[in-house]
Design a protein that fits this description.
Radius of gyration: 19 Å
Strand order of the largest sheet: 3-4-5-6-7
Distance between the termini: 66 Å
Order of helices and strands: EEHHHEEEEEH
Strand content: 25-35%
Helix content: 25-40%
C-alpha cells in the first residue's frame, strides 16, 4: 500500500510519497537521528514506557521550566544551571525518575525507591495510572529547592 507523509522542513509544505514500510521506517529513523538524543530515547521505548516517559517529561518541564533535557550516561537527564537535576530511565518493567540531589530530599520519601543504592532515590512507575501528579510535583519542587546542595549528604 502507498503511504503519504507530509513534511515541512520549510515553507511551502511538501508532499512525500513513501511506497513501502521500509522507506517509512528509514525516514522515521532519520528523523530520530536529527532530534535530541534524549528525545529519541523516549520515543524509541515500547509502550507503556513511552507514554510514562512522555508524561513525566511534560510534568517535569511544566514544574521546572528552566530544566534542560540532555542525554548523559545513555539516558535522558535534566540539567539546571549546568548541573544534573534528575534523570529518566526505562529498565526492566518500570520507569525510574531519579533525583541527583536525592540525599537532601525531604518530602514523600516513603514513595521513593532506594533498594540497592547508597545515595540515589527515585520514583518508580510501571503504568501511567501509578503516577500521582501531586506527589510528583511536590518531589520535583523539593528537588528544585535543594538543587545546589550537591550529590552527597553533608554530615
Amino acid at each position: 500500500s502507498v503511504r503519504l507523509l507530509f513534511i515541512r522542513p520549510s515553507s511551502p509544505l511538501k508532499l512525500l510519497v513513501l511506497s513501502t514500510k521500509r522507506e517509512l521506517h528509514a525516514l522515521s529513523k532519520a528523523f530520530l537521528l536529527i532530534m535530541n538524543p534524549a528525545e529519541s530515547y523516549i520515543l524509541e521505548q515500547r509502550e507503556p514506557y513511552r507514554a510514562i516517559l512522555l508524561h513525566l517529561q511534560v510534568i517535569i518541564e511544566n514544574t521546572v521550566p528552566t530544566a534542560e533535557l540532555r542525554y548523559k550516561y545513555r539516558i535522558p537527564f535534566y540539567y539546571l544551571e549546568g548541573k544534573p537535576f534528575c534523570y529518566l530511565n526505562q529498565s526492566k518493567d518500570y520507569v525510574d525518575l531519579g533525583f541527583w540531589s536525592a540525599a537532601h530530599l525531604s518530602v514523600h520519601l516513603e514513595h521513593m525507591v532506594t533498594a540497592g543504592r547508597k545515595v540515589m532515590r527515585s520514583l518508580r512507575y510501571k503504568s501511567l495510572e501509578e503516577i500521582d501528579e501531586i506527589i510528583l510535583v511536590e518531589v520535583l519542587q523539593d528537588a528544585y529547592s535543594v538543587r545546589g546542595k550537591g550529590f552527597w549528604s553533608q554530615k
